[in-house]
Specification:
single chain, 166 residues, mainly beta, Immunoglobulin-like, seven-stranded antiparallel sheet, 1 helix
Length: 166
């Protein structure tokens, strides 16, 4: 009886990866899921402000297991938050590093609550996992209007979505 149980467990674990591949499960993830902080301190010297702050330490990794010819996009939007007045946040995905049909970056995009396409024309492919795999995420925060700036802590979440291209 125990032998049959172990054989069944082996069969389930042996064929589970094949079942996932057959179901065309696509994945998307960031290499760094921690917070990224930007300090917009008070200006103490005339002309001494930074117009744009850039962070490029995150990488977006994904797997597309769909050989039907369907093309995919990666979109980004803010999630359950508001960008502070006077601030603009741009996101750009760098070139594709991986195997298969990587997509084309659409350049730097202004982020809002409305999803915007960062990469399009993605087909079946795998980026791998970790740094230097997939697309480098380049976040840029700029001051659009100094008069609208107010001190405070503004938590912001950017949501990345892998979706079929229409």
């Amino acid at each position: 009886m125990n032998t049959k149980k172990y054989i069944l467990i082996f069969i389930v674990f042996a064929f589970l990866p094949l079942a996932c591949w057959a179901q065309k499960i696509n994945t998307i993830s960031l290499t760094t899921r921690s917070s990224t902080s930007f300090d917009l301190s008070a200006i103490t010297v005339a002309g001494g402000h930074t117009a744009t702050i850039v962070n490029n330490t995150q990488w977006l990794n994904y797997t597309i297991r769909d050989n039907s010819g369907t093309l995919y996009t990666i979109q980004a939007s803010t999630s359950s938050c508001t960008i502070p007045p006077g601030i603009e946040i741009h996101v750009e995905l760098g070139p594709f590093y991986g195997t298969g049909q990587g997509g084309q970056s659409t350049g730097s995009k202004l982020i809002s609550s409305v999803p915007t396409v960062l990469v399009n024309n993605m087909g079946e492919g795998v980026t791998g996992i970790g740094q230097a795999c997939g697309h480098n995420v380049i976040l840029s925060i700029g001051i659009a209007d100094f008069a609208l700036l107010h001190p405070g802590n503004y938590p912001l979440t950017i949501q990345y979505t892998l979706t079929a291209q229409f």
